Amino acid sequence: MYSFERNFKLKDGTPAAVHILAEVPQYVHDVAHICFNEWPDAYIKDFDIFSVDQCAEDLRKNYMQTDKVPIVLVAHTSAGRFLGTTTLQLRDMPKVRPDLENWLASLVVSPEFRGQQVGNHLIAAVRALAYSLAIQKLYLWTEKSATATWYERHGWRHAGMQDYLGTDVFLMTLEVTSP
C-alpha cells in the first residue's frame, strides 16, 4: 500500500493537504458531486454515469486503490473542508482516444477556494504521484484556452485540438520528471 500526503497552506494561512481518496474516503460524495456537476456530458456520454450517486458508487468501486492507476487525489483543510480534487486516470477519453494512457483528469477546485493555489498543489501532487509510479508521460484535455494557458505555466505542452463529444478541446502533454 502506498501512502501519499502533500501539505500546504492556503493564501490566508489555513493548513491544508492533498491525500489519496482511498485514505480519506469521507470525501467520496464531495468528489462525485463536484466532478459530475462540472462535466455531466463526459460522465454521461463517455462513462455511462448518469447521476452524482452513480459517480460516487463508481468511485467506491473503481478508484479506492493507492498504488496503481486510477488514483483520485483530494485537497482539504486540516479542519476537514473539501477544497478540490483531481485524478490520475488510465484513460480519460476512452471512446475517443483509447490509444492514450495516463491522464491528469477531473481537476476541479471548489468555487469558494479558487485563486487560493489549490489547483497548483493538485497538479504538483499528480506529478509527484505519477513520478513515483514510474509514469513518464501524462495527458489532459481542457475546453478553455485560458485553462490551457494555465497548464502551460505548469510545464504542459499543447499537443493539438481534439473533437470530444462535439466540442473542440485542447489536448496537452507533460513529460514527467522528478518533482
Automatic annotation (TrEMBL):
Domain (N-acetyltransferase): residue spans on this chain: 26-177
TM regions (residue ranges): none
Protein name: N-acetyltransferase domain-containing protein
Alphabetical list of Pfam families matching this protein: Acetyltransf_7 (PF13508)
InterPro entries reported in the protein's UniProt record: Acyl_CoA_acyltransferase, GNAT_dom
CDD domains: NAT_SF (cd04301)
Record lineage: Eukaryota, Viridiplantae, Chlorophyta, core chlorophytes, Chlorophyceae
Gene Ontology terms, MF aspect: acyltransferase activity, transferring groups other than amino-acyl groups
